[in-house]
Design a protein that fits this description.
Number of strands: 6
Shape: globular
Largest sheet: 6 strands, parallel
Order of helices and strands: EHEHEHEHEHEHHHHHH
Strand content: 5-15%
């Protein structure tokens, strides 16, 4: 990382108005530059490869590839890129998922005006930033507090990255053919993935996948 006086930031959010607000806020800081903006999780991964930002400000709920999955991919490709996750929602389970994905800062959109700049300054020094409630969850190792949530996360981890991507696309209402075209694979391969996903999750319909996707923050309810 180049230091707090030469900070390059990638914004990933599917709402143009939010991106404009974030860009104006972040660009107003001396030495901070918004080097790129993404409207989908997949685009965020592509732009991270292209621009190699110091920090990514990542919304969770984005089309095609959600923010948690995009975070996993970026961190796997570029472990030195720090990622700050923005969310409309807070839950203990979500805190654990954010950390598991590789992000080291978690800020509620409702608190962005007071927490975002501090979080980015902290990340610029390669230190994690979590609010007091989130920190408490991490300190106590929250999984033992909610066995049902822990079981859900474990099941989620049995899916591959490609399978999680397909779950989201199907839950967004795309047909097998549309998924195949979007991912550059055959319809037969898509159908095989779909069958494997349903088997792993013990489900029998796309409507069940939609509920699963909402529960796991892959799409908005």
């Amino acid at each position: 990382m180049q230091g707090p006086n030469q900070l390059r930031i990638l914004i990933a959010d599917d709402h143009a108005v939010t991106r404009v607000g974030l860009r104006n806020l972040l660009s107003s800081r001396p030495g901070w530059t918004v080097c790129a903006e993404a409207a989908t999780g997949r685009q965020a991964v592509t732009l991270a490869e292209q621009y190699r930002p110091d920090i990514v400000v990542m919304d969770i709920a984005m089309p095609e590839l959600n923010g948690l999955e995009a975070t996993r991919r970026i961190r796997k490709l570029f472990p030195k890129i720090e990622i700050l996750v923005l969310s409309l929602h807070y839950s203990d389970e979500l805190v654990r998922e954010v950390v598991d994905a590789g992000a080291r800062a978690y800020v509620l959109k409702s608190d962005a005006s007071k927490d975002l700049l501090s979080a980015i300054r902290t990340l610029a020094n390669h230190q994690a930033y979590f609010t007091a409630p989130a920190s408490e969850v991490l300190i106590r190792g929250g999984c033992d507090q909610n066995p049902e949530a822990n079981s859900s996360v474990s099941i989620h981890k049995t899916l591959t990255s490609r399978e999680r991507e397909i779950v989201q696309l199907l839950a967004e209402g795309k047909s097998s053919k549309e998924v195949a075209v979007g991912l550059g694979i055959s319809v037969k391969t898509t159908e095989t993935h779909r069958a494997n996903i349903l088997r792993k999750l013990g489900m029998h319909s796309v409507s069940e996948l939609v509920r699963y996707a909402v529960k796991n923050h892959m799409i908005e309810p």
